[in-house]
Amino acid sequence: MFNKILLATDGSDHSNRAIEQTVKMVSPYKEQVTIDLIYAVDGETSKSDILKYGDSNTATIKRKEKFLDTIQHIKSQGIQADIILLHGEPAEEITEYANHHEYDCVVVGSRGRNKLQTLILGSVSHKLVKYIQSPVIVVK
Fold first, then answer.
1. How many CB atoms lie within 10 A of CB 78?
2. Angle at which helices 90-99 and 124-131 pack, to 10 degrees?
């Protein structure tokens, strides 16, 4: 049984499916489970957000608001949940965070990037499976 889960998200449909599957997976044990949603903001998105919102503090608040409904949904199922925001290349930041904290498993959606980005850069999920020391579940 997984009690402490790190759930990588980027707001995509694939990561939303991963969230739903994780909630289903832990529902029989929900009182004993904590889910930490983790969102890593890459440099390009960070710059875009700052230009859009005017400053980094407002951009951070808006990023947290983006996942507020998701956190509330998870909590409404009786599961403890929180959001962690990181800055940097998503695969590297999530791997570093996961390997320096004690999680029973990490869950990630199978795709966030488009096919060309995946071909050139590799998929985040593939990198997480390869480098995270805890079990990693990839949801299609």
1. 12
2. 30
Note down the domain range covering 130. Answer: 4-139
- Please provide residue 40's backbone torsions phi and psi, each rounded to the nearest 5 degrees: -105, 120
- DSSP state at residue 80: E
pTM of the model: 0.89
Three-state DSSP class for residue 41: strand
Amino acid at residue number 27: S
Number of domains in the chain: 1
Q: What is the pLDDT along the chain (140 residues), one digit of tens a residue?
A: 799 999 999 888 888 999 999 999 999 999 999 999 999 998 888 878 887 888 888 888 888 898 999 999 999 999 999 999 999 999 999 999 999 999 999 999 886 555 544 444 458 888 999 999 999 999 98
CATH number for the domain including 87? 3.40.50.620
